[in-house]
What we know:
6 helices; Lipocalin; alpha+beta; SH3 type barrels; 4 domains; rod-shaped; single chain; eight-stranded antiparallel barrel; 16% helix; 444 residues
Amino acid sequence: MKDRPFRHCLILFNLLLSLLTGCGNLGTGVVIWPPEDSIWEPGDLVSVKDESILRNTYIVYLPDQNLLTKEIEKWRLTLHRKKKDAVLFSTNLGEWRQVYAECRYQGLPMRLEANNTSTQVYRFRLGEMMKVLSRTDDPIQVGNLEGYWYRVVAEGGIEGYVFDYHLQVVEIVNGEKEILNVRNMNDPVLDAVLAGNWRPEFYSHMIANRQIDLTVFKPGYGFFPDAATKTLVLRLPRHSITETWTEVVPIGRSRYDFIDTSFRITYNNEDLISVQYNDGSREYLETFVRLEGDIQKIIEDERTRRRNITAKLIEQGPQFDSNVYGRIVVFDGGRFTWIGKSSLISRGILSSGAGNSGTIELDHFLDPAISISHEGVLGFLFDSGEVVRFLYAFEEGALRLLHVPQSAIRNKKVLFDQYSNSIRLYFSASPPIQSSQDDDIPDQ
C-alpha cells in the first residue's frame, strides 16, 4: 500500500498529459506549407497521432515509420478525420501545390470573401509571403485594375482572399522560382503620368490672367518624372526633392504608389495630376498641369511687357512734375529719380532716408475687378530698399497715381482700390530734362 500515493501521482500526470497532447489517432493531415528544409512537400499526407494544445502543434508520424514522430505547427496542415477527405483535398491542390505569393504593397488586405467589399481579416507587410491554395476561374475588374482573387494562407494560419494585382505569384520547385503572373505592364494612364513635364497649377492661372510672376514662373519649377531612370524630380519655390522608385503599384482608379519613395500620384485627366509627397516630416499635396506653351517664351513675353511699360513712361514723360509730390524722372533700363517728395515722407509713406533714386518694379498686378480704372501697378524700389506702390493710369499729358497700402495686396495682386485716407497723386508730363539723374538733390 506504500506505493499508492505514487500511483495517484502517476494517474494525475497521465491525465494532465492527455489534456495537453490529446489521445488516440486524430486523422490524416495534408501538408499545406511545410517548414523550411522540411522532409515534406505541399500536398503530402501525414498521419496525425496527437496534438499539443500548449504548443499548438500536431504530432505526426514520419513517412514509412510506425513509431517515430515529429511535431509540426497546426497551421501548416489541414486535418481530416477521414483519409479519403484528405486525399480529395490534396488532389484539389493540384497545380497550386508549389505556388506561393509575395506581397508587393504595404498593407495589402486579405478579405474573408473574394470581393473588395468583404471584411478584412488581415493586412500583409511589403515582401511578406503567403501560400496559395486556389484561384478564381476568371479575371475580374476591381476599379481600373484587372486580376484574380487568390485563396491564400498567411504565415500563422489566417486564411482568406487577396486580389492579385499587388502580388507576385511564383511556383517554387527545387529552390527555383518561376513567376506565374507576369502581366502586361502596358498602362496608358501611367504612361500619361510619366510622359513629359508637369508644371505647378498656378502657372495656368497666371497665363490665363496674363499675370506672370517671374519670381516663381521659371523653367526649373515643376514635377519631372523620368521613366528611363525611375526618378521623380519635384522643384517648387519651397521644395526640391529627387527620389528613385523601384516599382509603380496601382492603388485605385488612376492612382499610383511609387515604391521606395514618398510619392503617390493621382491622374485626374490628361492635363491635371495631383502629387502627394513628404518633405521632412510633413506631407504635402500639390496639383500640376500639362502646359502646351513654351515656358521660356512666356517668360520673355512678360519681360517684354514690362519693358514696354517702362518705354511708355519715358515716351509720355520722361519727367513728371507735381507741385505737392515733387518730380519723377524715368530713364532707360527702368531707373528713376524722385525728388521733392517730402509730402509722402510727412504722411509716413516713405522715410527721410529713402533716398532719391532706384528702380521701377512691375511685378504686381491688378485684380480684374479694378482693371477698368487703372492700367497697372507701379512699384518704386529705392536703392535704400524701401518700396512704395501705386495704381497708375495715363491721362492726356499727365500720370495719375493712387497709393496702395500693403493691406490691399495679396500674392502680388492689388485686390481693391477704395482705401481710407487714400493718397492720390497727379503729375504733369514734361519733355526730357537736360541734366542727368538728380541723385544728389536732397528732399525738402
